[in-house]
Design goal:
Two copies of one chain form a homodimer.
Chain A lengths: L2 E5 L4 H12 L3 E8 L6 H12 L4 E6 L38 H16 L3 E3 L4 H4 L7 H14 L1 H4 L5 E3 L7 H10 L24 H13 L10
Parallel strand pairs in A: 1-2, 1-4, 2-3, 4-5
Helix pairs in contact in A: 1-7, 7-8
Chain lengths: ~230, ~230
């Protein structure tokens, strides 16, 4: 049985990605980060998902990115609400962008993968709804893969790292359909950038708006608990 | 005045690298990691060096890599001593290799650089004495640079990140001469993989052997405090 490290934020994309890895018969090692995110309730979700999908191990790695700062996700920058131009998220970089976040997360996933002696890493990046984030594009993933293969003992010893991105070209609606098909309980996922302390979604931030739109387009009832 | 982020371990290479950045008139932001390294006295050295070279800021980032494990530097794996074939360090990967360490460190340096709005990162990698480490080679640095330029907001907005590696082709003896010329006090640096609790070098690990050899070849008296 091949092992795989799966980045698991607790959102719907990473939950679906984990379900894909499981369905492809990988022994799953889920990796989450306690990175001083304002929405730490997503870690509660990550734990529920890891348990329900039965991972071999779930590592919550302490990584306080507020030591560096520079984003609405870790600093006190206001998160945009109720945008009427939600489709334009596709072309601009939101204030919720965390500098080099996916490079950092993938580096740690790579380190764990090398330690576990596996070459398989899964990440739920997706260009359709988030092309505003430079580190969600296939071009970036390919460049990182190359760096990993040049810069690690395993890589230069002939093991080729593969960063799996099963959702990269799917729309939110398609991700939702795939997740449902693989048994993901989306009530256990949180996408909101600004949830209430008890983990309810705001329903107004970019991520909530995209999620609502996804369920609407998929023709599936949205099970998310919203504040109001 | 251009800003630069400089990776500063507290060893002689990173101290010299910082001195180079300073001599090139960068405003220096030094970045060290508290990564559960067995030789944490190198952080004491990093602080002394940062102070003597007068950096603008010295950030010691908490990053407990023992959460992942997999190296003699963070786990209880025995560190090799008194090798008679020290020159062969050039062709093999030592047990002190930390999986993907430089990728992780550079990712965090990149995140800080992006936050500081600068494109300059310095790292004291060096192929002469450490070609055994895959993540010390120029090919790796170039691949990382490309990943950074594709995967960050700054990178895709036209700012090109540059990873400076002023020591990459120097021998240990040449690094020592350059450091002395730039005023580095090597007594404040620690290269040892297994120092005593009060920060004295063992004199026997690969790193100590290479350091001793460097001073010998440079014809400079080694100021290092050894245990015996």
């Amino acid at each position: 049985m091949n092992k795989a490290v799966i980045l698991l934020s607790g959102g719907m994309d990473s939950a679906t990605t984990l379900a894909v890895a499981k369905s492809e018969k990988y022994e799953c090692f889920a990796l989450s980060f306690r990175y001083a995110q304002s929405n730490s309730s997503e870690l509660t979700c990550a734990k529920k998902i890891a348990a329900s999908i039965k991972v071999k191990k779930h590592l919550i790695f302490d990584l306080d990115l507020s030591q560096i700062g520079g984003s609405a996700m870790t600093d006190n920058i206001e998160i945009p609400k109720n945008r009427t131009d939600i489709d334009n998220v596709k072309t601009e970089i939101p204030v919720t962008y965390v500098p080099a976040r996916n490079i950092i997360f993938l580096s740690l996933a790579l380190s764990w993968a090398e330690t576990l002696n596996t070459q398989h890493i899964f990440i739920g990046v997706n260009v359709q709804d988030y092309s505003g984030y430079p580190d969600c594009r296939d071009e970036f993933i390919k460049a990182f893969e190359k760096t990993a293969n040049i810069g690690t003992k395993a890589g230069i010893s002939g093991s080729e790292f593969h960063i799996h991105t099963p959702l990269i070209n799917l729309s939110k609606a398609e991700i939702i359909k795939k997740g449902i098909q693989l048994g993901v309980d989306f009530r256990d996922t949180l996408s909101c950038y600004d949830p209430s302390p008890d983990g309810k979604a705001c329903g107004k931030c970019d991520s909530c708006l995209l999620r609502k739109k996804g369920f609407r387009e998929a023709g599936i009832k949205d099970p998310t608990l919203y504040k109001e």
